[in-house]
Amino acid sequence: MSVIDGKSLASQIKAEIAQKIQYYTSKGLRPPTLAVVMVGEDPASAAYVRNKMKACQEVGIKSMDIKMIDETTESELIAQIHSLNADKNIDGFIVQMPLPAHIDANKIIENIDPDKDVDGFHPLNLGKIMLGLPALAPATPKGIIEMFRLMNINLAGLHVVILGRSNIVGKPLAMMLLQKRQWANATVTVCHSKTQNLKQIAAQADVLIAAIGKPHFVKADMVKSGAIVVDVGINSIPDPFKKSGYRLVGDVDFEAVKEKASWITPVPGGVGQMTVAALLQNTLEAYEKNLNLL
Ligand code: NDP
């Protein structure tokens, strides 16, 4: 078994991005700018936002933190989005999810300019992804495919089983892995909470990708010997030995599964790192398009 070092792979991507930005700014251009809109004060979301902004700083992307109170109305948030859409100096922005229950997330996403949608959640971008056309792709699926590319893992013809069918991970990832192109061409099965015989299906996977949000759900008997296991899950579980009182674990029972897998991603230090790197790639792409550099 070998552990996939998401941190080191993400550093490679960040170094490429930093180099490009340095080139552009040396020619007198302004740096790329990402805005992050957060409504409310969910501590987990605040930690994700801090991570993203730190990563921006590392590569030379200017980031803007836009905090809105919990009581923000849907129309106030939409007005904020329209102002970011219209601002030529903002190349891309994200609205940190989850949003408070009184705001319809789909309506918010639909109001984002697809060219600035660096989270890749807008229906136009997702539609293009399905058709195999160039588009800003959702960061987590994109980061996972980047991971395969950097590891030189050829998925052509392999059976990939994805656990989870969310709009931000499972579904777009399935579409992207199905494309007729390099680092894809897989045979894809998607499982969800209504899937029968999930255990047996998972055990047939050459590549098993878990994205369900259930700590340690994937056990060793669900994994074929020699399979590649990608753990997307980020779950917080109580841990009295930690100062914070909790620790983060994935959807995979890492200690047991690592003995059967050929490659496995850890949590933390795996897919999470790749997701942030892919967000930076999307921001650079949106900047290049905004400034007609492509
Ligand atoms: P969602 O809650 O939106 O979707 C979960 C999916 O898992 C659903 O399709 C659900 O099925 C399925 N599911 C839940 N329980 C089971 C079960 N017992 N058996 C089979 N399928 C099940 O989650 P997300 O996709 O947003 O996130 C999944 C996990 O990935 C979370 O832990 C999240 O924190 C993490 N995450 C990590 C990221 C990273 O950068 N590493 C980025 C995004 C998410 P159904 O549709 O039938 O309800």
Secondary-structure map with pairings?
Blueprint: E1 2-3, H1 6-26, E2 33-39, H2 43-59, E3 62-68, H3 74-86, E4 92-95, H4 105-110, H5 123-131, H6 139-150, E5 159-163, H7 170-178, E6 187-191, H8 198-202, E7 207-210, E8 228-231, E9 235-238, E10 246-249, H9 254-257, E11 263-264, H10 271-290
Parallel strand pairs: 1-11, 2-3, 2-4, 5-6, 5-7, 7-8, 8-11
Antiparallel strand pairs: 9-10
Helix pairs in contact: 1-10, 2-10, 6-7, 6-10
The site of NADPH dihydro-nicotinamide-adenine-dinucleotide phosphate has 24 residues, from helix 10.
Q: What are the bound molecules?
A: NADPH dihydro-nicotinamide-adenine-dinucleotide phosphate
What is the terminal-to-terminal distance? 41 Å
H and E order: EHEHEHEHHHEHEHEEEEHEH
The main pleated sheet reads as: 6 strands, parallel
- Contiguous low-pLDDT stretches (5 residues minimum) are none
Summary, kept brief:
This protein is of the alpha/beta class. The chain is built from ten helices and eleven strands.
